[in-house]
Amino acid sequence: MSKHDYDESELDALVRRALSRRAFLGRTAAAAGGLAFGSAFLSACAKKEGGAAADSMAAGATGTAAKTVRISNWPLYIDKETVDDFQKATGLSAIYTEDVNDNNEFFAKIDEPLKRGQSIDRDIIVLTDWMAGRLIKLGYTQPIDDKAFPNKANLVDSLKNVGFDPGRVHSVPWMSGMTGIGYNPKKTGREITSFNDIFDPKFKGQVTMLTEMRDTLGLVMLAEGKDPGNCTVDDAKAACAKIKKYRQNGQIRAFTGNDYAEDLAAGNLAVAVAWSGDIQGLAADNPELRWIAPKEGAMLYSDNMLIPKTSDRGALAAAFMNYVYDPVHSAKIVAAAPYLSPVKGTGDELAKTHPDLAKSPLLNPPDDVRARLHVFKWLEDAEDTEFNRLFQDAIGA
Known about the structure:
D-Maltodextrin-Binding Protein, domain 2, about 15% strand, alpha/beta
């Protein structure tokens, strides 16, 4: 995939919560409950999360259940009103469950049922690019009914065609996010503009990178003049050799998940490969922290809506997708879930309702940042295995 260019109306809100979705997951994963399937589970979720409409559905009326769309998404990824508003506007019911805590963990729960052609009691599931690609390749998803989804035309041009789903036949993004550099100016003593700045010997032992292979490897490749959207195994070898060198000489202190955030806020780190949402979320603790898209480029990831192949409610799933792809409704979601909307026009709507948020460069990245966003290429199985082997060796895992 090549460099993405974004118009101001195409990418919107990014990060303003005290905790981003990823930060929330990092701090609550140990307490996360497992995924269950079947009517008992749905009834419990309906009572907890669906309000009066879901309670009615859980009572067991066949006609009502046939008009119910069942959704699995990540925590902290929607506002408090959209589900109820969707039900009122369409006459349909919705069970919205925040039970996706980790891509691999969720896949492990749904793999066997889908392999056997059994229902997982879900009509929409939301998974990150690489996992979405895995499900599509395995035949675990069904095409989206575009006739029931006219607002699909609002998908930003830059995300209409992706390697794991050409033409967006089986998926559409729910939200996107960025990976770049977070740093503490008081520790660095200067501005950071290039990814290669993190290798300044002055910062030895005060640098962290992420354990997310595509995020870290993609940024290193960009710093080496390679496009992670069209990279080779040789590119991965070169990037991993660089990472390993700076791990072994002590420049890189650690490879982390969200746990870099507190150290950065406390001044224990100078520079970190960081999710933009985390840095904005840490503003209350340390307003001096900054997040930048390096001049060589930053990484863009998306979490995508998919319809499981065993769902018999594809039209209802498309109806929900259509609702959230209205820019008015998208603006309401991103005002509460601070990430990049994939829906054209969301920025204009956000400016009407939350002008301060719309003006924030982290909520509405400037054109030069949008022009430097890259999506990691889709890796076939053998290539994915090799990339991960190289990366795990590089980080000393």
